[in-house]
């Protein structure tokens, strides 16, 4: 009983490693490392801190978090940091939600594994949910907000991204997109070829324009991502492989298939409770889709997976207080369910 | 006595930072008091947002990355010279 399950899990890992490591993961890790190294954190914080009026604060929070390659654990100190240094509660929670749910890295990666439509749906739904979350938090805690001394300190405006680093980031994005979009069919070796050309381009440009010290830091950060994320990723793929073998396809189809509210709710709960490190959610969802999961619920899982987890609820509760954590988690669960249901019935028909 | 604070929730990078700082302190053979700060509220108070972060004698030296050994050694020698 147990051995076939383990074998199924290992088969899933094997398949994933064979088909995704070179053309999806290597560029994704390089992109993650580049974002950490080259995107100026001071510039993001300055923009977040300076935003005073509410709509502007939400927009900067959402826009700034687009450049933070992070899972829910990394973004918590950032969010509490801007909150305690004077940003509104709405902006703090918008950041908390958007950074893991849809940043540049996870969107591009989602697109290369699950297709462009899913990436767009993920972006738009994440932003829509962010607006509602920000609003709900602002309205529910308005009295507390009024009493809190809010003096957003205008930061020193800094350049978000040097021009040369922006080009490098663009090239890495290209090396992640090109193999998966240009080569839709044919043998895998063709994808590898496209990947190799694009990667040579990245390497060539880096050597030509980027100082060697920064290249070293970039590769170092990339290596950190590989060391921390890669084992979790393999574990995730292994678990779905086991799930696929253990549960009859009919079960997954009846509980997570279609686009009904129940399927979306279950997918949302699965995503909200369990911990997904950044990048791990896409292959997990990919596997579940092939086992019969509906696209609406898949989107709900993609959004809540990296954005929320049980350890994350506790951390938010400790930092912001239990009431704020409860309101936040409740809002996300309701929105995730509605969002999955809505996109499943309206967009992915 | 130099006061060193390393801020981080306990992630792998934060542990690496602590190890780097410890190694620098040992190599220099200086008298230093190293504390690890895990509480996010303390981080917010110190205006630390990206972890890991290192503070030496109350001055924020780096945030959001693991500093290299030469860097830390450099900060510590400067701090020791100022005492």
Summarize the structure.
With 349 residues, chain A is mainly α. Chain A contains 17 helices and no strands.
Written account of the structure:
The complex is a heterodimer of chains A (349) and B (83). In chain A, helix 6 (104-114) packs parallel to helix 9. Chain A contains 17 helices and no strands. Chain A has 349 residues and is an all-alpha fold. Chain B has 83 residues and is an alpha+beta fold. Chain B is 45% helix and 25% strand. Chain B has helices at 12-28, 40-45, 69-82, and strands at residues 2-7, 32-37, 53-56, 59-63. Chain B has a four-stranded mixed sheet. In chain B, helix 1 crosses helix 3. The radius of gyration of chain B is 12 Å and the shape is globular. The relative contact order of chain B is 0.26. The model of chain B has no long low-confidence stretch (mean pLDDT 88). Chains A and B meet through helix 4, helix 11 and helix 16 of A and helix 2 of B.
Which ranges of chain B are low-confidence, i.e. pLDDT below 50, for 5 or more consecutive residues? none
Strand count of chain A: 0
Tell me what portion of residues of chain B adopts beta-strand conformation.
25-35%
| Rg value of chain B | 12 Å
Oligomer: heterodimer
Q: Which residue ranges of chain A are poorly predicted, with pLDDT under 50 across at least 5 consecutive positions?
A: none
Write the layout of secondary structure elements.
The complex is a heterodimer of chains A (349) and B (83).
Chain A: H1 2-38, H2 41-50, H3 54-65, H4 72-84, H5 89-101, H6 104-114, H7 116-140, H8 142-147, H9 163-182, H10 188-209, H11 212-246, H12 249-256, H13 261-273, H14 281-290, H15 295-307, H16 310-320, H17 322-347
Chain B: E1 2-7, H1 12-28, E2 32-37, H2 40-45, E3 53-56, E4 59-63, H3 69-82
Parallel strand pairs in B: 1-2
Antiparallel strand pairs in B: 1-3, 3-4
